[in-house]
Design goal:
Bound molecules: iron/sulfur cluster
Distance between the termini: 8 Å
Shape: globular
Strand order of the largest sheet: 1-4
Order of helices and strands: EHEEHE
CATH architecture: 2-Layer Sandwich
Oligomer: single chain
CATH class: Alpha Beta
């Protein structure tokens, strides 16, 4: 079960993670993880976003 999602330094603001899973990711200057989200409801899309990130800065645990 995913309990934590982090975006490390290095995001290039491509917007992919937000496109794939807007319930969890939102774009500001760089991508951010929304507060108060139940990650367990979005696990497949979090994994897809993590795999799709071109600079592999999304981490989940
Ligand atoms: S997919 Fe990766 S590089 Fe693109 S906005 Fe999300 S965190 Fe940033």
């Amino acid at each position: 079960m995913i309990s934590k999602v982090t975006i490390n330094d290095g995001c290039i603001s491509c917007g992919l993670c937000e496109q794939i899973c807007p319930e969890v990711f939102e774009m500001a200057d760089v991508a951010k993880v929304r507060a108060g989200v139940d990650f367990s409801q979005h696990e497949d899309k979090i994994k897809e976003a993590t795999e799709s990130c071109p600079v592999t800065v999304i981490i989940f645990e």
